[in-house]
Amino acid sequence: MRRAARHAPRALALLLGATLAAAASAQPAPNLRIAVEADITSLDPHFHNLAPNKAVAAHFFEPLILQDEQQRLVPGLATSWRAIDERTWEFRLRQGVTWHDGSPFTAEDVAFTIARAPAVPNSPSSFGLYIRQIAETQVVDAHTIRFRTSTPFPLMPTYMSTFGIVSKRHGEGATTADYNSGRVMVGTGPYRFVSWTQGDRLVMERSQTHWDGVQPWGQVTTRFMRSPASRVAALLSGDVDIIDALPTGDIARVERDPRTAVSRALSNRNMYVFVDHLERSSPHVTDAQGRPLAQNPFRDLRVRQAVNIAVNREAIVTRVMDGAAEATGQLMPRNWFGWTPTLPPPAYDPEGARRLLAEAGFPNGFNLTIHCSNNRYVNDERICQALGQMLTRVGIRTQVQALPFATWIAAASRQDYSMLFGGWGIDTAEASSPLGSLLATFDRATGQGASNRSRYSNPEVDRLVAQGLATMDDEQRRQIFIRATEIAMRDVGLVPMHHQINLWGHRRGLVHAARADEWTLAMSVRPGN
């Protein structure tokens, strides 16, 4: 009896501990409430190659290769990949992965996705950009797949990180409407679909069978809130836990509040100015009397150089962007693939700009209208107003016309402008993206220069871009892209301005891994210790 009595307190403690642990594990997981600036256009992961859509899709549908917060490649549904030869890539797929309905993930799903993604009807922006290099898909076995490309293609792993894999079983015969309704929203991702009300909110719940473990949030609700003031108010009132696109003017306010904090990441987005490179009378350039000029002044390198050094980038960073940007003289963010120390931000030199304009035959300058969006990029209209003032000081008397993004982009794509301010997000983390899209000669057939709205053209840049895209050795390819960048920047193919710093506001106590690609992911948020 004495022996039993001596061990009774210990046994009771163990029983009580086990009971408390079981009770704790039975507690419902905390929920996460997110507010984001941009709504999505579809739940179909292959309908619209648009950053907000891709960020939402990443919760449900995973790519073969993931990108971390700095867009470095890490294993996803593929555990390894290798180039068998210059035109053949092999991917080994992760075993034991299941779809949300419990069925196994196999190479057949990957082959189905490769066929589906570039062929979705009525897509406003196709994923074919990432897939058209594939000439043949070969399913080797359930967990091995090979792609044969039409030309050497070193960027295959990067491109395989840009779109999610869908289930063949659920995707065959399914339409975009079937995804939007939720009927075929069956993925391998860390979250399962619950509901979507366009313009209002998206609700998801965590998957209990995800290959990388269970997420900490039982349910995630993402609210779409276009108004910056509404997002900030929702955060400060405690209605949401994290918001994206924190206005630069509210950084200090959110940091001062003991309940909230700010997270930051240098963006992959380059903000730049395009000038008209077409041989024509440029549509928004006139002389002092308001008469159109017979020749486009931006065809003269000295005029482009004058614009480049008339811009006080540091003033824009400090006064307009409230410090939430880094001035740049090139395409890539600092230390990214294709960045070079040989191209620092050009020094602000208004006297030099006036001298170059005089040398080019414009001692009295000329009149100009610059066009920009007023609802797409951080402080876009304010930046344009600052640019207009800076150009006016050197003799290019500039008016600003700021338009809704949809109106602005349509006209920009028709080359209706003489100068425009825009931005480019580098989703492939290599200089081939801005070089090939913004500065390569426009070619509808090949897709090169697809966003080259200035119609800049330099045969040497084109040659180097093509050479880089066919060079399998990473260091050789990096040096080729640096050389192409140096040529294009010294030719002022565009005027690089700054890289944004992405900003999130969140409830203090949360741990948020801020991303260079601007994506707001539930997977990037963890409860604090």
Summarize the SSE layout with pairings.
Elements lengths: L1 H25 L5 E5 L14 H7 L7 E3 L5 E3 L2 E8 L2 E6 L13 H10 L11 H4 L2 E8 L2 E6 L6 H4 L8 H4 L4 H5 L10 E7 L3 E6 L12 E6 L3 H10 L4 E2 L7 H6 L3 E16 L9 E2 L14 H10 L2 H8 L4 E3 L22 H10 L6 E8 L6 H14 L2 E8 L1 H9 L5 E7 L6 H8 L19 H11 L4 H17 L4 E13 L2 E3 L12 E3 L2
Structure in words:
This protein is an alpha+beta fold. The chain folds into two domains: 140 residues, Dipeptide-binding Protein, domain 1, CATH 3.90.76; 234 residues, Dipeptide-binding Protein, domain 3, CATH 3.10.105.10. It has 17 helices and 20 strands. The strands form four sheets. Strands 1, 8, 9, 10, 11, 12, 13, 14, 15, 16, 17 and 18 form a twelve-stranded mixed beta sheet that branches. The protein has a four-stranded antiparallel beta sheet with strand order 4-5-7-6, covered by helices on one side. Helix 15 runs antiparallel to helix 16 and helix 16 packs antiparallel against helix 17. The two termini are 45 Å apart. The N terminus is likely disordered.
**Ends distance:** 45 Å
Number of helices: 17
| The CATH architecture of the largest domain | Roll
* CATH secondary-structure class of the largest domain: Alpha Beta
Which fold name is given in CATH as the topology of the largest domain?
A: Dipeptide-binding Protein, domain 3
Q: Characterize the main sheet.
A: 12 strands, mixed
Name the beta content range.
15-25%
What shape does the CA trace take?
globular
Mean of residue pLDDT?
93
Low-confidence stretches: 1-25
Total individual domains = 2
Structural class: alpha+beta
Care to count the β-strands?
20
User: For the CA atoms, what is the radius of gyration?
Assistant: 26 Å
- Roughly what percent helix? 25-40%
What is the assigned CATH homologous superfamily of the largest domain?
A: Dipeptide-binding Protein, Domain 3
